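Hi everyone, sorry if this is the wrong subforum. Our group has a chain we'd like a structural model of before ordering constructs, and none of us has done structure prediction before. Sequence below.
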Amino acid sequence: MNTASETASRVEINGTVFNPYSKDFIREPDPAWQVLLRDYPIAWHKDLQMWLVSTHDLCDKVLKDNRFTPNFFAWEFAPPPKAEADKTDFDRAFEKGFFAVSNRDHLRLRKLTLPAFSRPVMVKIDAKIHDLVDDCFKAIGDAEEFDVYDALASKIPVRSIARMVGVPTNQEEFFHDFAVNIIKSTRINLSAKEREASMLATQPGFTYFKGLIQERRARENPGDDFLGSLVGAKENGEGLDDYEILSVIFALITAGSDTATDLHTFLIHGLLSNPDQYELLKQKPELMENALVELLRYGSFGKMPFFRFATEDIEFAGQFIKKKQAIGVNISAAWHDPARWENPNTLDITRRLDGNLVFGAGAHFCIGTYLVRVQGMLMLKEFIRRFPHAELANGTGDVDYEYTHHNARRMNRLRVKTNIHGATQKAA
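Answer:
Right subforum, don't worry. Here is the predicted structure as tokens:
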């Protein structure tokens, strides 16, 4: 296929069809998603310089196709390879990580990291997160109103991961900065200058974690917590090196800190916007896990898609994708695909969610899934216990968005009326 015929047959769109930076889109994304789903299931976005894949079926296929890699350095506009002497800790950790290694090495990493995600380790992490969630709600106390973003969403996710990887509480703000810069370092929707600045800003964090790893290696027993399990992991006598351990922390941060901030605001907004579903969850707490996944599907807080990159020239869904081109896997749109979900704009916590893509699919299924589920369910249980009669302040929650966020339709204000005092008086 020559270049002329490729271009002639290529389906193309621009920002008039899909503009993830538009305030209208951030406030109400579904109209744009439905246009993509109906008219442009796969299209080259001229402004974003990437393929955009939006239907549930096509997103699922891309995520499960090994010819599409999450390796940022496979992108046509990625920075050129560095000489070994010029590589930073960020570069070396990325090269050893889940997103960059071969399929064979990816399986090896998964095997060696399994002990760190074992049930005994997770039980200890659960206890730490439970204490964190409890502290956040104690700080809210018996307030008549509070802001979900300030009180919960900005505190629970990044602190959960900090505690999971052994960061003391007095270093959590430092860890938050490290996490934000890790995530921004490979976002292809940011400029090269922004990515480079973020990459350099990760260095203090890598230095800190290298020190923690060395301290664990110096022990007779590295410990049975998350970090100790990574340091002590062995497969045929071989363990993880420092940069492989750093890459696991890297992956956890990418999966479970910045984006999990939006988890908490959208969970509460979704439930309180649908009082019948809030009431049902109170009556049937056994629906909690299913409710969490359905709330994530319903809220679809992603602004930008997942990124994948073609490792070879590929004919896919009737389009010719060139090697190194970016593919935006628009799973937020896929979660609202009427071909996959009946009445996709309706929240139904009893919905059958088999085959959902909420946590991705394929070999790179989200490594932070367990952590996200645990913190989300602990937060919801405590919210329901303390504020069973809660409602959105002024009927809307006075929602405001951080319109410039690099990745998410982030609510940076969500006011909740607790109705604690009214309920107490009524009970009396």
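For your construct planning: The mean pLDDT is 88. The two ends are 78 Å apart (CA to CA).
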